[in-house]
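Module 6 notes. Inverse folding takes a fixed backbone as the condition and produces residue identities as the prediction. Think of it as a translation problem where the source language is geometry and the target language is the twenty amino acids. Below is one complete input and output pair. Work through it position by position during the lab.
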């Protein structure tokens, strides 16, 4: 797996960013040098970096030019890999930063989820070029209008609203760099939806005005600086309320209550499995754990409680949502990624190199991988051969693999096999060990009373 190196960013007129080693290196264009240094020297910047709401910055100012060094976020995720509550957390941070900036004479000029990354369950702004001086003078523009207002609507509010009203997946943001246009959403809504309080203001009204034409430009609205500031704050407060109301209702799924409805696990067997995994984590003390098929995060939380930082990968949207809410409420170092290992997020953007693939971001990061009650899903639901699964996991872990083997006789295996006995009915534990040969060495084998087997493997080669 050797994907092309992501290209340096090129869309920001103030600078470009590239990744090298442990740093994100930002080159500032000469015409933006003074404004950038002005912000970096401000008390606002120092406070945001100290609180962890904005990425730390080291300034390298030489005759050759201005360069900023940021510590690299180890596993960056993109909005199309977020749950609704992650979107809301990123939106709340964006509005809060703008409110704090206004109080000190600054303002956010950009408002897109692409400027936010997650460290565990916490969002962090990584674009330090998003701030500019706020000028309340009314001579050139209506100073009470937030310049990033329309961008926030398109990229934050409307995706959440359409997820709630039309069940459009948030993953569609993969194809919508600048968000949704109200006119395209208007066509997709029913008449009653168009007239609903939730959609009328951000969708129907703009769509109608756009169709009618904006008309001649209006002269600047002359307002005092205090009044302009007051109106701007009211705008941000209103956006926050609308964004919270746009959150989809929490819905159930096939898997989000999986751990509480395990018919093939007795209470004793569940406790035995939990105790064994806890002991492995305690003995090995991994610093970075990748939990594949994390469900609602029981074992992710267990790994975090032993001192590990955890990447929790879950394909089911409701389970991933529950996982993120749990980690955020408990302040656990668990980063939720809503994605499917069998269909991992591809690289996208110009020349397919503006973002990197999920597998490339995960490769070699974890020193222990958890694959509990997941491998039979990959075999039976995705029809992935055992050797291919082991090869992939081998590339992702740097040291260990904890895997749960589900035998053919297991009720869940039988349910997922769907009568394809000729293809999968003869699959045995020996086939697993054969696939691991030369890739992993067995360190521990723990059978459970229900016939399932827990393995601890050590990576070879």
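Target side of the pair, the amino acids:
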């Amino acid at each position: 797996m050797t994907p092309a190196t992501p290209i340096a960013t090129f869309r920001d007129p103030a600078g470009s960013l590239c990744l090298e080693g442990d740093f994100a290196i930002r080159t500032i264009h000469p015409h933006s040098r003074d404004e950038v240094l002005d912000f970096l020297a401000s008390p606002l910047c120092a406070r945001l970096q100290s609180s962890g709401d904005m990425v730390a910055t080291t300034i390298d100012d030489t005759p050759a030019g201005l360069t900023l060094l940021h510590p690299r976020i180890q596993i960056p995720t993109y909005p199309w890999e977020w749950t609704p509550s992650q979107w809301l957390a990123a939106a709340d941070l964006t509005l809060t930063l703008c409110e704090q900036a206004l109080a000190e004479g600054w303002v956010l000029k950009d408002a897109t989820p692409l400027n936010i990354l997650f460290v565990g369950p916490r969002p962090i702004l990584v674009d330090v070029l998003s701030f500019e001086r706020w000028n309340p003078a009314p001579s050139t523009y209506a100073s009470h209008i937030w310049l990033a207002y329309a961008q926030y609507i398109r990229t934050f509010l409307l995706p959440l609203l359409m997820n709630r009203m039309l069940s459009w997946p948030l993953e569609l943001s993969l194809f919508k760099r600048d968000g949704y246009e109200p006119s395209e959403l208007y066509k997709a809504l029913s008449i009653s939806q168009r007239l609903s309080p939730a959609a009328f203001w951000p969708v129907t009204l703009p769509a109608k005005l756009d169709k009618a034409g904006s008309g001649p430009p209006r002269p600047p609205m002359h307002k005092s600086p205090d009044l302009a500031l007051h109106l701007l704050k009211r705008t941000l407060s209103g956006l926050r309320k609308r964004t919270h109301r746009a959150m989809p209702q929490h819905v159930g799924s096939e898997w989000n209550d999986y751990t509480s409805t395990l018919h093939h696990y007795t209470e004793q067997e569940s406790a035995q499995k939990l105790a064994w995994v806890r002991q492995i984590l305690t003995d090995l003390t991994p610093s970075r754990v990748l939990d594949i098929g994390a469900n609602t995060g029981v074992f992710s939380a267990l790994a975090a409680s032993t001192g590990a930082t955890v990447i929790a990968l879950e394909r089911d949207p409701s389970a991933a949502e529950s996982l993120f809410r749990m980690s955020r409420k408990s302040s656990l170092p668990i980063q939720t990624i809503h994605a499917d290992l069998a269909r991992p997020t591809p690289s996208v953007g110009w020349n397919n190199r503006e973002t990197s693939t999920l597998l490339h971001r995960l490769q070699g990061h974890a020193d222990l991988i958890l694959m509990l009650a997941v491998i039979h899903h990959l075999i039976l639901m995705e029809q992935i051969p055992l050797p291919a699964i082991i090869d992939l996991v081998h590339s992702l872990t740097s040291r260990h693999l904890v895997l749960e083997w589900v035998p053919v006789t297991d009720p869940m295996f039988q349910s997922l096999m769907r009568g394809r006995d000729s293809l999968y009915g003869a699959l045995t534990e020996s086939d697993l060990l054969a696939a691991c040969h030369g890739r992993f060495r067995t360190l521990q084998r723990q059978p459970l009373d229900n016939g399932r087997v827990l393995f601890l493997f050590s990576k070879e080669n």
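Reference fact for the lab report: The first helix runs from residue 33 to 40.
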